[in-house]
Target: TetR/AcrR family transcriptional regulator C-terminal domain-containing protein
Amino acid sequence: MPASPAVATAGSATAGQGTRRRAGRPVGGVLDKGGITEGALGLIEKKGYDGLTMAALARSLNVAPSALYNHVKSKRDVLLLVEDHLASLVDVSAFGAGPWEDAVRKWAWSYRDVFSRHTPLIPVIAVLPVTDAPQTLAMYETVSSGFRDAGFPEERIVSSIVALESFIFGSAYDVTAPADIFDPGTMAEATPSFTGAVRSLAEQGHERPADVAFSLGLEALISGLGGLRG
Amino acid sequence: MPASPAVATAGSATAGQGTRRRAGRPVGGVLDKGGITEGALGLIEKKGYDGLTMAALARSLNVAPSALYNHVKSKRDVLLLVEDHLASLVDVSAFGAGPWEDAVRKWAWSYRDVFSRHTPLIPVIAVLPVTDAPQTLAMYETVSSGFRDAGFPEERIVSSIVALESFIFGSAYDVTAPADIFDPGTMAEATPSFTGAVRSLAEQGHERPADVAFSLGLEALISGLGGLRG
DNA sequence: CTTATAAATGAATGGTATTCATTTAGTGGT
DNA sequence: ACCACTAAATGAATACCATTCATTTATAAG
Model:
């Protein structure tokens, strides 16, 4: 059933992303980085990150697993393609269109929301050289430009962004945590202060406790970092 | 060479952690949760998290891989044991022994340092019910008690700790990032603002740029969250 | 001595990413 | 119209990996 080599030629397309091919190349390939990214995203949406295997990805593209390795060096490369695509979904539109505080707020919430649905990528981003991720780099350019215009001293811009980003990544995990994560269980009597604090928060009846913590931390960071401006 | 069942009986010990065994049990086991934790920690130290396989762990305990499954349900259980042990290494000594700001500062730096050497555990902690991690729970008790004594309203204690923790976990990743992670490479001309900001930080010549960002964010959080006290 | 049981074994199982020699099929030059 | 080149596909093989299971061993209790 695995179709003869060029049978599926008609499909996907989405070509022309970056990688200009040299002359003298056949046009038959079903695959390219764009198509692989799309396939991976679709697979993640349907089956989650556990379902994202090289075999499943190849299958969704009607291709043998080994064919993928003509286009990506490793599975990590696939994750990188996905990550960079996600960066383009982060909302940076408020930078340059209003006060710095509002822009950071909008950007941070959007950034957290995007990656809270893709937490398995966070360890990948953390050590990802931006060189390999053009969309991610574009996001940084817009954000750092917004910080500069807001009056940040140049040598503090990157550190401030990194601090915010660290908080954002950590908070993305919180969103996925089970509701009863802080239930002390049988140890409740041994931990009265913590147990009381957990109960008290629960009684507030917030829809999403993770949002309360995120808002609290974000506002603290915004006002604290905002004080660095000249 | 894989020794007859009870040959290594003399070893490890470290018994008595929680799991009281019922009467009528042989004493021959080389393994218990304490021994497994020690073995895993040693392996991580020597070979890193890639080297922590069930086979390698069993080998380091002079036991067959399948034997481990009499004591843990899965590899995730092993990671959990390790995580809980690490929680006991976090320095909470300053709570109750000085101003709240200093206690949080000391705790946060210590917390980040411990987990920056164990980042593969971060995704595990994030969704780990504290019930299964007594040492972790003990840490929370001390910290939340410190927040309470400092005058935090009860319903804000957990959210404040979560916000700090999120920042700490995200920052732990930064420590492990390669030095050139922000090198824009060939895209430098396309991203003048970001490139300038990166250069400017580099010229400051900080030993560990991650520490600058962490300090910046932590101080912002401390002063922002500190304002919640009654 | 018998019986029950925790704890060990080793052989399988099913899944994983990745490599490699080989084949296919377009493209440009002659 | 042929040829040489090469990107891109194949499928079989490799080396791990966590996990399961029927079986065996060794101790402790009655």
